């Protein structure tokens, strides 16, 4: 299991906490930036993380900005990405079990460190349930063909 992580300046502190958490747990990750605290544009970081996920260079992605919203909107423009912005463990689990979310988006200004790490645990422990949910994921993929 390898996870790509990315943030803008609004999520850089939480990203650092997530990276430290992965280090402590021996979870493989690739940090796609940002590496500076100056103002940057979140689509520039959603892009490499999303590309790595769809190209199967990593298994999953985690994106952090101030709210998680900008990152989720940007990442969901990439064909094959199902990015979910969540701020509780239940939604995190459901985003994997029902929606097969391949990117988790978090808001540093919304969730604290401990809740964020708990959300990540719930997300990583959950697995896609398939069956009727598979049909719905396929219908989402069909929507991408409209573009
Ligand atoms: C940056 O100020 C902020 O807009 C960004 O981190 C994010 O919250 C956007 O959705």
Question: Which properties best describe this structure?
Answer:
147 residues, alpha/beta, Ribose 5-phosphate Isomerase B, Chain: A, binds D-ribose
Topology:
Blueprint lengths: L1 E6 L4 H14 L2 E4 L11 H12 L5 E6 L3 H7 L7 E3 L3 H9 L5 E5 L5 H13 L6 H13 L3
Give a brief rundown of this model.
This protein has 147 residues and is an alpha/beta fold. It has helices at residues 12-25, 43-54, 69-75, 89-97, 113-125, 132-144, and strands spanning 2-7, 28-31, 60-65, 83-85, 103-107. The protein has a single domain (2-144), classed as Sugar-phosphate isomerase, RpiB/LacA/LacB (Ribose 5-phosphate Isomerase B, Chain: A).
How would you describe the overall organization of this protein?
With 147 residues, the chain is of the alpha/beta class. It has a single domain (2-144), classed as Sugar-phosphate isomerase, RpiB/LacA/LacB (Ribose 5-phosphate Isomerase B, Chain: A). The protein contains six helices and five strands; from the N terminus they run E-H-E-H-E-H-E-H-E-H-H. The chain has helices at residues 12-25, 43-54, 69-75, 89-97, 113-125, 132-144; strands spanning 2-7, 28-31, 60-65, 83-85, 103-107. The protein has a five-stranded parallel beta sheet with strand order 2-1-3-5-4, sandwiched between helices. Strand 4 (83-85), helix 4 (89-97) and strand 5 form a beta-alpha-beta unit. The mean pLDDT is 97. It binds D-ribose (RB5). D-ribose is lined by residues 8, 10, 42, 65-67, 69-70. The site of D-ribose has 8 residues, from helix 3.
């Amino acid at each position: 299991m390898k996870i790509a992580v990315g943030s803008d300046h609004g999520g850089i502190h939480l990203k650092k906490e997530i990276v430290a958490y992965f280090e402590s747990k021996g979870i493989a990750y690739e940090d796609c930036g940002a590496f500076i605290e100056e103002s940057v544009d979140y689509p520039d970081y959603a892009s490499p993380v999303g590309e790595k996920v769809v190209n199967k260079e990593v298994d999953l992605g985690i994106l952090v900005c101030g709210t998680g919203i900008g990152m989720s909107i940007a990442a969901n423009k990439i064909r094959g990405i199902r990015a979910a912005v969540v701020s509780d463990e239940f939604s995190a689990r459901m985003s994997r079990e029902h929606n097969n979310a391949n990117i988790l988006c978090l808001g540093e200004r919304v969730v604290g460190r401990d809740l964020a790490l708990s959300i990540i645990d719930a997300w990583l422990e959950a697995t896609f349930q398939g069956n009727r949910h598979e049909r719905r994921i396929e219908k989402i993929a069909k929507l991408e063909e409209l573009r």
